[in-house]
Amino acid sequence: MKxxxxxxxxxxxxxxxxxxxxxxxxxxxxxxxAVTTEYSLLGSQASFGAVPPMGSGVGSDAMSLMVPPxxxxxxxxxxxxSESSARSAMIVARGGCTFEQKALAAQxxxxxxxxxxxxxxxxxxxxxxxxxxxWPQDKFDYDCNFGQAxxxxxDMSALSLPYQSYDPTNDSRLSGDTDYNLCVKNDPSFxxxxxxxxxxxxxxxxxxxxxxxxxxxxxxxPSISHQVAIPAIFITMEQAARLLADLSNNAIxxxxxxxxxxxxxxxxxxxxxxxxxxxIAALAAFLSAQDYRDHxxxxxxxxxxSSSAPTNERTYTAHQPSTSNxxxxxxLELTPLHALGFIVMASSALLVLFFLKIYSFVxxxxxxxxxxxxxxxxxxxxxxKLFTSTKYKRYMSQVxxxxxxxxxxAVSRIEVLxxxxxxxxxxxxxxxxxxxxxxxxxxxxxxxxxxxxxxxxILFLSIIKLNSIRVASILLIVAFLYDIFFVFVTPLIxxxxxxxxxxxxxxxxxxxxxxxxxxxxxxxxxxxxxPLPMLLTVPRIADYQQGASLLGLxxxxxxxxxxxxxxxxxxxxxxxxxxxxxSATPTNRSPHTCPPDSPAGRICGLLCNGGYFVPxxxxxxxxxxxxxxxxxxxxxxxxALLYLVPACLGTMVVLGxxxxxxxxxxxxxxxxxAADAMVYGEExxxxxxxxxxxxxxxxxxxxxLGTVEEGPDGDVPLLSLT
Length: 722
Hints:
By secondary structure, the chain is α+β, with helices and mostly antiparallel strands. Helix content is about 40%, strand content about 15%. It contains 22 helices and 22 strands.
C-alpha cells in the first residue's frame, strides 16, 4: 500500500505559465480628477528583482506610467544610475536584449518598476553573419491550425521588411479583428478561429499564421552582475494594447500599482484534510470494536431466585455465540510475519508502478475495490435503516438470488440494491478519472474519492486486526523506514527521482515546458502530475495556484491499526468487567492520584486512569498536525508516518508502562482473547491465575458463558465456553 506521505499541500501542476502578479490601473480626468477608467491586468513575475507585496488596487503610493527614451525604444542601452523623486513604472516592448537587461536599464533611469509587454516584432531577428531574417518558429510562436492566411504581394509591400525590431505600424497591420489586419482581410474567418487575433509571417512565401499571445517566464541573465532591485512583470499583447491606448489618451492621468496576487499563507484545506484524517482514523478504529459493544448491551443480570446459588456467583443473560456473531471469514489477525510481508508487498508494488507505469490499471482496481467498500460500509447500512421503518422491510429482506458461484450464496434484494448503488457510483467516478484532464478539480470526483477512501479505511480496519503492540511496533517501525526510504533515499539511487512522489503523482510532473503545455495540454509530454487515487484530497481554497492538500490512505490505516487495537482493548475490558460485576466500570483497579475538580485533574485522569483509545486519537491528531506544519515550514510534502509513528506508538508504550500493562500489551492482552471467546464462540481460553489481565476491567474471567464466578481474590483461571 502506498503510505506516502503527504500532506502535500504544495502539489501543484505547472501546466501553464501562471500569472502571479497583477498590474492595477486607474485613470483620472485631468479636468476634475474623477476616475474614468479602472481595471487590473494579470502578469507573470520575473525570477529576478524585488517581489512586490500581495494586494490589489491602486494605493496612495501609485506610480505614473512612462515610456523609454525615443532613441532607445527597446531599452537595451546602458545608463548611469539616476534618482527620481516621483515614483514611476516604465512600460517596454519585448525584444532586442534580455529581460533583466531591460529591468537594469529602467532601474538606472529612476523607474520604480518595469512592465514588459509582448510584441509580434520580438519573434523575428536577423542572422548577424548572413543578414538573413530568422523567422518565428512553428508551434512555439504560431500555429497554422488555428488560423492561416496568404497575403498578397501588395500586402507584403505594406510591411516594413525585414521585420527585425519593434515597429508599431507593422504590428498593427497584423493585429485586430478588422480588415486593417491583413490576415483578416485575406481570410475573414481568421478573426474567429485565432484567439489572439494576431498573425506572424512564417517565411514560407506570403503565408501568415495565428500567433500565440501568452505569458512567459521572465528568466534572468547570468551575464549580468549588477542586482536588479525593482519588480518586473510581463503582460501580453492584448493587455498591452489596452494599457498603451489609455496611456496615449491625453485627457486622463494614468497611474499603476504592481502587486503579487493575494493568496493565503496557510490554506484552510490543510486543516480540513487534517480533521478529515483524524475523524476517519478515529471512526474506523471505533467501529472495529463494535462487536464488543453490541455483545455487552443485551446482557442483563438475572434475578437471584434460588437460595442455593453461591454468594460469589452472579448470573447474566447474554447472546450465545452463533454463526451470525462469528468473525468474518476474511478477517485476519496480523503476526510479525504478516507485518514484514506487508511491507515487502507494498515495496514491490511501488517499484512495479515506478518502472512499468501502469497507473491506469491502479485506477481501475481502486475503483473496483472501493465500490465493494461503498456497498458494505455506506449503502447497505443506509438502505437497511431506510427500509426498516417502511412497509417494504420484509420485501427487501427476501432472498432474490441464491447461487453457489464464488461462494456468494443467498443474496437479498437490499444487498443487490446496495451493490448496484456502490458499483454505479464507482463506475461514474472511474469514467471521470479517464475522461477529465484534471478530474481532481471536479467537486463530484474528489468528494466521491474521499467517501470511497473513508469506506476503504473502515473496511480495512474491520478485517485486519492487531492483538499486540509487538506486532504493531514491527509494522509501524518498518513502515516508518519504508516511507523515509522511498521519499528521501530513492532520489540518490534513481537520478533525483523520488519513487514515492513519482508514483504518487502518476509518473511525476509533465516533462514539457509549462508554456508548451498551455498551448498543447493533450501532448504526451504534458501528461502526469495527477495524484493516484489512494488518498484523501481537498482542493486548496481561495488559491489561484490551485493544487490540493493530500493524505495517503496508508497514513490512516497503518496508525489506525494501533488505534483499533486500543479501542478493542478498552471495549474488551469493559465487556469482561461487565461479565464479572454487572458494570463496565472496573472495580479492582489502583488509580493514580490526580488533582480533583480541575482541568489538570481531568486530563490526568484521562491519561493515567482512562482507556487507551482517546489518548491515541489525540496523539494521532498531534502527529498529523506536526506533519501539516512541517509542510509549510519546509515548503515540501512530508512523509506523515515520520510524525505519526513516534506519536502513536510512543503514547501507547508510555501509557502501558505507567499503568503496569506494558508486558500484557506487548505479548497480546488476554482480555481481548477472552472477549473474542465470548463474542465469537471460541472453544476455550485459558489464563494463568497469577496475572491480573484486567488492570482496568478487573481480574480474569472464568465460568461458562452466562455465569461468572469470582474467586476469593477476584481472579478465575479458566473461561470455558460450553
